[in-house]
Input
Amino acid sequence: MSFRPSPSPIDDATLTSLLDRALGTGDLTPSQRRRHLALLAQHIERLEQQEASYQNVGERQRLVAGALLVLTAAVALSLWWLLASPTHPEVEAAADILAPPAPGSGRHLLITGESTQPVVGQTRRWTVEIWERTLADGLHQLAASATDSSGRSLAQYVQSGDAWTLHDGLEVDHGRGTPLGLPPTLATALATPGSLREVLLASDPDNVQIRQSGNQHILTITISPSATDRATLARELELEAEAVKALILTVRFVPSEQRLVSWEAAALDVHQNQHPLFAYRFVVWDVMAADAVPDASFTLAPATPSPTLDLPPVLSLPSGTFTRSSQHQENGAVRAIYVGPGTRVVQITVLPSSNQPLDLPGPDVQVLRTTAGDVQWSSGDTAESWPRLALWDDGRYRYDLSVLTAPPNGWTLADLSTIAEALAAWSGAIGQ
Amino acid sequence: MDHDAPACGEIATTEEEAALVRAINLDRRNFGALYERYATSLYRYALHQTGSPQEAEDLVSSTMLAALEAWNRFDPSRGSLAGWLFGIARHKLAQHRRLRRRLERLLRHVVRVSGQASVDNPGPETEDILALREALHHLAPNDQEVIVLRYGAGLSTREIADALAISEAAVRVRLTRARHRLKRELGGE
Output
């Protein structure tokens, strides 16, 4: 086509008309529109299912985790005392009972808990069942499963030596990935005799009351959280700021029989001291031989095994060691959770590389250059400048990262770069 | 010369846009209304940027899906809905072009292919339209895009500014410059 100038001058109106005619035409066909709308409807349905699932998980997280937060806080609040003060002999006696079973021994524990939320006036109840044993060769194993009052699985945690795996109930039920927050990840793990033992040993003797009732010895430990810790507890328990006045741990045991009778943890409301916001107690404590503990308790198969994609490694970041839980998904991906210091939880979904261009959604996507390649990142819907979402592809695998929780400015581009490079090293090693 | 009024009258006014945003915030299933409102504009923009109806259709689809995914991140205080949507479309288009360039490079190693895009089934066009298309090709890419967003997609100056992340003044300058150049090319000045 050759360009031939118009023989006559052209005015603004004519040019606008020409532009409208040339560019303002063309449309999708009705069938294309129907196809697009069907696709969008399908996508909306999937998003809604995903969100319902998230809400469900969030609800469960609070249920299981809230009580354990009491323990976490107790450990954090009193740990500084460990090196500074001598431990009371009564406390040491109770701590001995909570120590891991001797080789060849095992135990079965049942823990119940409930929380009351003043805002909605709702009481939630849950149960954690623990099987624990130490084999003759010294290998310590622990399996914990949490269920709600209707018997639905909330979380399952298995530890064998230093290795551990955690699945939350939805994943096990449906075989697909859903984000786990930090609380359920650590929650079930913390609901163990070992965590209580840490609290006891770290307690300030001035805050421990000891009394006796028959052959039972009763320890009561009162912990007064700092304003910051109270705010954290209130947020996690969905309470008004600073609503938590104190954490009370009560342990009943019979030293002569090396037997724990009961253990309770409670968070007291600043307004309703008589009615705990949170209560958490052992109701069963059976001791047995290690071979009486069912082996199946310590087996937790992935929901959807993938023969081709192995799990990403445990990573070390500059600001702390990350531990992991992993979940195989239906599409062949592996979804891994990395837990960092504080409240940091990073989720990474690893998929075989599709050779498709990177496509992190959102208008504020930026690119971080790393030795592992370009990493697209954005701060998501936050006004902060740290990378909440990231996407990159090393040619072998595609990595979709989202930071589920993090303290303010607690996650940096340097962290993102480190994790991308560590995963690239892992990917390279797999390929050799 | 007024560049502010939408050319094809299909883009939502601010009030309509606000109502649409409220409706989607209330129930995401109302996203279909957003699709109906903007699909044609997006398609025309994509059609003139890619030169291919098939690629334009794909671009509309992927833009809408990305917008749906990112809906929670849309902040009306930071810009117009149309600007946000076309910003996503531009991002998709850039990805598409990178992919196509790679594909074309690959193909050139195998067979001799023309890297020039062609509009499929353009239909009968008058001589003046053909002349205008030729003249459009002589514009700088930035100016071409502003013209297509304005007259193809029907965006207002503010919406174009939001989509391109530039000032409204810069949009006006580009529009005026582009129109001046087109008139000159078409023999008017």
User: Anything to note?
Assistant: The mean pLDDT of chain B is 78.
